[in-house]
Write a structure and sequence with these properties.
Layout lengths: L4 H42 L12 H7 L2 H66 L6 H26 L5 H24 L7 H20 L1
Helix pairs in contact: 1-3, 3-4, 3-5, 4-5
């Protein structure tokens, strides 16, 4: 379903708020389930060894004196607790990544609303000057060059969007990358067209090449 800019912003804000709530809920659930172990470790770290003999509260000694059945039960409980928290973290991580991916998609679509419009202007300021700059070849040569530049623009856009979806680039950077690359070229070509510069005229390049060749031969003879 296509959304306008306001709908994208509202949906993105809702997804971001929901992600924050779920992260806070996950953190609280971890604290509630496993706060006991953290409190024990903190308490042991705060004990003044000069006042209390740490051997009295050495849990390893208590565990060593326990029966085999109690040891096995304690180990089994520890393993179950570790597996439980591992599964909980894994499931929450997958959920967070899916939600972040949805947020990135919303950001991509939001920027696409602007980049497509700007791209039309940039490609116009590239294609139109080419017709004035390329003096020979009729309509075919400007069209070929324009299509070539459009393919480059499309490849950069697709690559940037792919990186943005994967979280390797920020959406704004990925979506505006193609425009940022071709905008200087459009400005340059427009400037050359307004100044009537024979930038892509084959005769001009041939004259320049002949002039360079003559100067080089003259320098060798001297």
């Amino acid at each position: 379903q296509m959304m306008n800019i306001n709908q994208l912003e509202n949906s993105k804000d809702s997804l971001s708020d929901e992600l924050i709530i779920r992260k806070e809920r996950f953190r609280k659930s971890i604290d509630d389930k496993y706060a006991f172990y953290y409190q024990v470790d903190t308490l042991l770290g705060q004990i003044d060894t000069a006042v209390i003999d740490t051997a009295i509260i050495d849990t390893t000694l208590i565990f060593a004196d326990a029966d085999k059945g109690i040891k096995l039960a304690a180990i089994d409980n520890a393993l179950q607790s570790a597996r439980s928290i591992k599964n909980s973290i894994g499931n929450s991580k997958d959920d967070f990544e899916r939600r972040q991916e949805r947020i990135r998609k919303h950001n991509i679509e939001w920027h696409r609303k602007f980049t497509l419009s700007i791209a039309c202007l940039i490609l116009f300021f590239i294609g139109a000057p080419l017709g004035a700059i390329i003096r020979k070849g009729g309509l075919g040569m400007p069209v070929v060059v324009s299509i070539f530049l459009f393919v480059i623009f499309h490849i950069i856009s697709i690559t940037g969007e792919k990186y943005a979806r994967a979280g390797l680039l920020e959406p704004y950077m990925a979506m505006w990358m193609a425009s940022a690359v071709l905008l200087p070229l459009g400005i340059f070509l427009t400037y050359k067209a307004t100044t009537d510069s024979p930038l892509l005229d084959s005769d001009s390049w041939k004259k320049l090449f002949k002039l360079f060749t003559v100067k080089r031969k003259t320098g060798v003879m001297e």
